[in-house]
Design goal:
The structure is a homodimer. Chain A is of the alpha/beta class. Helix content of chain A is 39%, strand content 21%. Chain A folds into 2 domains: 313 residues, Aminopeptidase, CATH 3.40.630; 114 residues, 2-Layer Sandwich (Alpha-Beta Plaits). In chain A, strands 1, 2, 3, 4, 5, 6, 11, 12 and 13 form a 9-stranded mixed sheet that branches. In chain A, strands 8-9-7-10 form a 4-stranded antiparallel sheet, covered by helices on one side.
Chain lengths: 435, 435
């Protein structure tokens, strides 16, 4: 195993590929708009397929539109055999595994509207570069390697569409009322030459999935602020969201005494402030967001009868999540009661917290140590394709620093050295896991 | 003057008229929808014109669509002369005044959408009943009496349209971008057979306006709670409104630490609570309302970059208004700064406070005392047609109790005895002012 430890990705080749990709959907201000199944996204995928095939990998796609470069053990073995004939006899014994089990390395080529060049793209390009490096060095692996671009991670249409479909976790319900709108989904699938029933055919048998590794930018400031090279992800936070409705009474905003009002804005406002204080003081590993309030009737001169508040909160730990959820609901009830309001709550479960494989975290950390890169354990506040594989195969994820924590914006930036560091840790970890 | 003090309106006739009016635009739940120039509104006006003409009054209309019953001094005098021939010789000396000066009694027949039966309607029906009572009793007055239904008090189209036009105060600007939308105004005028240029022809010479009296429901709980019959209005509050924009930064609501956010919702929420406390504690004669907040971008998973807040506040006193305005702006700046936000303010001046005539308030109070009705001095938190006459002629206004303070809703209700009390005070006050 230690024989691989000096292997590094080709930083210049990876940068050429990265820069080329950034041309698809380039917005002229350093960003990209490459939303799922847009012309820019489909063009980027067409180019990615050519890159895969021109590099001598098997190209694989599925009903969900995931695009992959596959490096089968047999190919690796054959390449290795050419330089190292004694490997030949091992090929036969690995054939069964070779045709069934794959270690996936990936991310996504789609972006949010007016997003950045790094989110998703870095992980896909690094995965391809890892396969190129492994292939050209004729490394003998025990599992196939697959560099995969998952469809619609960002949720222009559904969110985690490709990874959930591949993991066999996509609910048919998710296609009926998708967050991007039903019409956009239907039209997008049509543009991509896909059908709804085919999406579910992307599901792979669990036994074929040896693991999933992803390199991603942090989308936050923790690594940059601490001056640390690599974040080894311990968990992807869970997300819960509610619509909280504070319900009072519409009254004339001139003739109704202040003390006679049941003003929904007061409960919603007090909750917004109290929820933040609660999280900052008692749940430092969690975050909370009031992303929207809608006022009814919403006029200058009418006391608000109702405020519908969009609440989302995240935690990396299920027990803490339960406690935070309960505390927020108590807080909402208290603030509603304080101003004589009723409270209605509507729950939208989104994602449970996903723990990353302890073994893979250890390998990531060892790889960092070997490469003399500083590392720290982090929870991911954002959702990622990896969580689709929770309970199906071991998941591992690393972050590299984001300048000023910027993400989902053209100013998103990660120094190229950091990108290369991430790709090398991905390479080393894949090698250690796959041998 | 004391000879009139036993005169009372005909409560049953007034109720018959009131009930008939409530059929126009009746919503089936006790309310009415009679928005300006709707079919229901135009039908109610047609009926009102017939009531005027069938009662033997002169019908008068103008370019703004105001509808009036006019009881000229000459007619009163003639009617009086029939029963009291010695009045004949006084007619000639009053002719000049008779053709120029009028004491207006009125309100409006238009309603808000799904409004109540009493708001506006009571004032118009009571004014007509006052004229009927004066006419049938042959009372000799020094000024003409006019019972008037003003166009569009509620502002479905413009707000105070008819009274402002009659007072010569309507700004041409008000028709260019009216609150109900330009298209609705054009279509409404068309349905009513009116034109924009004719509206301005409704302006009357100041010298023809002897005064304006209005009976209205309170639209609040003060009289009901205090168990008082009549509210004598001291002032109609002024209204100021602002759009306050709290501006932070959109960030990923999962990966951005709570302490790294510039969350616009926090400034807007803290201001909403602080503004209420400020008014309740330091400005007990004033009211404040945050009627709406608009969040940008307004997603569950994005920290709000901007909240646009609709602020309105009212005061019956100009000096207090200035102090409240300044205090609210300081409060907004402080709350924005507290959360690292920028603040933008956009001012919309609406109405200055209007003082009611001290003399008329005294006559209202004396009339109440004579009729053994309890009374109190109140500021009106709502706007009314009377304020169009500020500085043009003396204005007087009284309120009668609203059940539970309800208004602008089908549940709006005033006991009929209270309505009759109000009409009798209107009658007595008109008699005392006009003789």
């Amino acid at each position: 195993m230690t024989s691989f430890s000096t292997l590094r990705v080709n930083a210049d080749r990876m940068q050429d590929t990265f820069i080329h990709l950034a041309l698809f959907g380039a917005t002229g201000d350093g960003g990209v708009s490459r939303v799922t199944f847009s012309e820019a996204h489909l063009a980027a995928r067409k180019w990615f397929r050519a890159e895969i095939e021109n590099s001598g990998f098997e190209f694989h796609t599925d009903g969900a539109g995931n695009h992959s470069a596959v490096l089968p053990v047999s190919v690796i073995a054959r390449a290795a055999a050419r330089s190292n004939p004694q490997h030949d006899k091992e090929i036969a014994s690995q054939k069964t595994l070779a045709t069934t089990s794959r270690l996936l390395l990936g991310s996504h080529l789609d972006s949010v509207p007016n997003g950045g060049r790094f989110d998703g793209a870095l992980g896909v390009i690094a995965a391809l570069e890892v396969l190129r490096t492994v292939k050209e060095n004729g490394i003998k692996l025990k599992v196939n390697l697959e560099a995969i671009d998952f469809t619609d991670e960002e949720g222009t249409l559904v969110g985690l569409l490709g990874s959930a479909a591949l993991a066999g976790r996509l609910h048919p319900e998710a296609l009926k009322n998708p967050r991007g709108g039903r019409q956009n989904l239907v039209e997008g699938l049509n543009r991509a030459g896909l059908s709804e029933e085919d999406i579910f055919k992307a599901a792979r048998p669990k036994k074929t999935l040896a693991g999933y590794l992803e390199l991603h930018i942090e989308q936050g400031k923790r690594l940059e602020r601490a001056g640390i090279n690599i974040g080894v992800i311990s968990a992807i936070v869970g997300i819960r969201s509610y619509r909280l409705s504070f319900i009072g009474r519409a009254d004339h905003a001139g003739s109704t005494l202040m003390t006679d009002r049941a003003d929904a804005s007061l409960g919603a406002s007090a909750f917004t402030l109290a929820a933040r204080d609660l999280v900052v003081e008692d749940f430092p590993n969690c975050v909370v967001n009031v992303g929207k309030m809608e006022f009814t009737p919403g006029a200058f001169n009418i006391v608000p009868a109702r405020v519908d508040l969009s609440l989302e909160f995240r935690s990396p730990d299920e027990n803490e999540f339960e406690r935070l959820d309960a505390a927020l609901m108590v807080c909402a009830k208290e603030q509603a009661a304080r101003f004589g309001l009723e409270l209605e709550t509507e729950f939208f479960e989104k994602h449970v917290p996903n723990l990353m494989s302890a073994e893979i975290q250890k390998v990531f950390a060892d790889s960092c140590d070997d490469l003399k890169l500083t590392h720290t354990s982090l929870a991911s506040g954002a959702i990622h394709d990896g969580q689709s594989f929770d309970g199906i195969c071991p998941i591992g994820m690393i972050f590299v620093p984001s300048l000023n924590g910027a993400s989902h914006a053209p100013r998103e930036f990660t120094k190229w050295d950091d990108c290369v560091n991430g790709a090398n840790i991905l390479l080393q970890t894949a090698l250690r896991l796959a041998t």
